[in-house]
Amino acid sequence: MVLSKGFEIEMYTGTPQGDIIGLSDKITAALDGFMREPDSRNVEYVTAPFYDYERLLCGLLCPRLKLRKYLQKLGNYTLIPGSTLSLGGSEKFFRSDPNNPYHGYIENTYGTKVVTASVHINVGISDPEVLMRACRVIRLEAPLYLALSASSPFLDGKATGYHSTRWGVFPQTPSFVPLFESHAHHIRWTQEQLAQGTMQNVRHLWTSVRPNGDRRPYDLNRLELRICDLVTDPITLLAITALLEVRLLQVINNPKLDPLVKSSFSPAELVGITAQNEANCASNSLDADLTHWVDGRTIKAAEWINELYEPAVGIAKQQGFGCFILPLQKILREGNQAQKWLQLHRLGVSSRNVISQAIDSIRERELELEDKLCSTLLT
After folding, report:
1. Dihedrals phi, psi of 289, to nearest 5 degrees
2. Cα separation of 203 and 215, whole Å?
3. CA distance 176 to 199
4. Which of 90, 294, 330, 376 has its CA 20 to 30 A from that of 137?
């Protein structure tokens, strides 16, 4: 059994020198499939859900290649990697839709803390109770996916001390989100938040993992992992997704894989543990010391990922996507995007040069993948 998978990708637009410039009004007017974010400096596209990774790769690449061609028509503009306003601009919010009251609420409440770029990974699970159990497990392990994806060590041209500045400053809302013990618990809690005003609408649940569907919180059909920084390399993103899919297959096939059953901690204690783990990974990503949700032992993020990776490879191979999970070892060996950027920065490379080099690298990577894979699959 394999699961359906899709992405919500937020990306910045700007100059080849790394300056981020808001173009979302023009992009969304000219191109189908792209949506505005509250700030005009980033734009979002969503892939259709696919079961196989080859088509998912093309779903990632094709809209981006179309966007690049359009940006060239507007001027010498490109796509900017990273998940924060790396080189400047955090002092001001640039509204993409001044007449949207929800956007006004976001600007006035959170400011530019939410002007970030990221990837949300959606994986299909149709049974609502299995989905809730999957959300419980993945929420407690979400820091591991942040550790793999961290790509925002800079803000306004300076190293911030975070590997993921985005998750370090992002306003998780509401301030306390429990582990949902059942679908009924999730519905009841959501209704309470809407009544109290701690959520403005059903989308205003900004936590690392949430159940998603066409009529939230009632009709749910997928798990949405929201913690990841923007992963610009498609092969790396598919590897992270493959690890997530295998973990969800393990959850689906083993009802005892449940923090409410398997952990020595109470649900409230588990929420506190995972909040601290998220903070640690935002600061130190793969090198972070974490508390394991099962037994409370201290474990490095990279070591925990390795523990999941070993059995995951076998399952991925059985399900026919083994080659897509293998690049995880390269991340563990060489570091994630933030660690590579910080290594260059420590050697004296300016943040601007780090970002401009990354802009060139990801453009070349996309063209390479288009030539090798997409042209074959789409013929």
Report:
1. -85, 125
2. 10
3. 12
4. 330
pLDDT of residue 74: 95
Contact between 148 and 331 under an 8 Å Cβ cutoff? The reply is yes
Q: In terms of Cα–Cα distance, which of 29, 39, 23 is closest to 78?
A: 23
- Interhelix angle 53-74/234-253, rounded to 10 degrees, is 140
Distance separating alpha carbons of residues 139 and 142, to the nearest angstrom: 5
Please give the structure tokens belonging to residue 33.
Answer: 């499939």
pLDDT attached to residue 151: 98
Joined together, the tokens standing for residue 58 give: 């093309």
In this prediction, residue 379 carries a pLDDT of 47
Given a cut of 70, the residues of the chain with pLDDT beneath it are: 374-379
Cα separation, 115 vs 338, in Å, equals 18
- CB contact set of 355 (below 8 Å; sequence gap of 6+): 18, 80, 81, 82, 86, 87, 154
User: Can you tell me the distance from the alpha carbon of 167 to that of 146, in angstroms, rounded to the nearest whole number?
Assistant: 8
Answer whether 118's CB lies under 8 Å from 151's CB.
Answer: no
With beta carbons less than 8 A apart as the criterion, state whether 188 and 105 touch.
no
Supply the pLDDT for residue 377.
53
Does the pTM exceed 0.85?
Answer: yes
Residue 280: which of 148, 176, 147, 116 has the closest Cα? 147
- Cα 119 from Cα 121, distance rounded (Å): 6
Confidence (pLDDT) at 309: 97
Interatomic CA distance for residues 218 and 208, integer angstroms:
20
What is the amino acid identity at position 221?
A: N
User: Which alpha helices (DSSP H) does 222-266 contain, by range?
Assistant: 234-253, 259-262
65's CB contacts (< 8 A; 6+ apart) are: 366, 370
What domains, with CATH codes, occur in the chain? Answer: 5-377 (3.30.590.20)
Q: 41 to each of 16, 72, 86, 95, how far by Cα in Å?
A: 15, 16, 12, 9
Q: What string of DSSP letters covers 306-336?
A: HHHHHHHHHHHHHHT-HHHHTTHHHHHHH--
Question: Cα–Cα distance between 233 and 330 in angstroms, integer?
Answer: 13
Alpha-carbon gap, residue 126 to 140, rounded angstroms: 21
**Beta strand 154-155 pairing with 119-124:** unpaired
Tokens of 305: 């990922």
- What pLDDT does 374 receive? 53
